[in-house]
Design goal:
173 residues; alpha+beta; eight-stranded antiparallel β-sheet; 2 helices; 52% strand; globular
Length: 173
């Protein structure tokens, strides 16, 4: 009986450790940019449309609701330098990123002090800053969520592209 109980406990521990690993079944992506000698990187989950449309995936979001900008574990920004998004300043550090739907066609990029949590566990009390995102419709469709950091002038451009939706904002270091 003691062996059976020990075996059951060992199995429960192994299953408990394996579940978070199995739950992340989307590939992960990473984008990096170096500005002023400092690295800015974003790591994120890359879900696929699988024949669905962006309206199927994000159309149910109502104003004030958040999209985790990917899948599985939260999308994480690590910046070694202070970033300026217009008048909004984001100090060097690590943040989770979210897109808040404001209205149809209007979004904000939200920086949250919590990071590493499951992507559906957004705590708005830990939101640090937000900046407007431009919504662009594209002629090409991205099957998987694709986040890019691209050098632009003395700064950069952040974009997230999925289906025919592209959300974009500019920043500088």
């Amino acid at each position: 009986m003691k062996r059976l109980l020990t075996g059951f406990i060992a199995l429960a521990v192994l299953v408990g450790l394996a579940l978070p690993l199995q739950a992340q079944n989307n590939p992960r992506g990473k984008t990096e940019l170096t500005l002023k000698g400092k690295t800015i990187s974003i790591e994120y989950g890359r879900p696929s449309l699988h024949g669905r449309t962006i309206a199927d995936m994000l159309g149910q979001l109502k104003p004030g609701q958040f999209w985790r900008l990917g899948a599985d574990q939260s999308t994480t920004l690590v910046t070694g330098t202070t970033l300026h998004f217009g008048s909004v300043i984001v100090p060097a550090g690590t943040y989770s990123l979210w897109a808040e739907k404001i209205s149809d066609g209007t979004w904000k990029l939200v920086f949250n002090k919590q990071h590493g949590q499951w992507g559906t566990q957004h705590n708005p009390k830990l939101d640090f800053a937000s900046v407007p995102l431009r919504e662009e419709k594209t002629s090409d469709s991205a099957e998987m969520v694709t986040i890019k950091l691209i050098r632009k002038g003395r700064g950069g451009e952040f974009s997230v592209h999925w289906g025919d939706l592209k959300l974009v904002t500019d920043f500088r270091a």
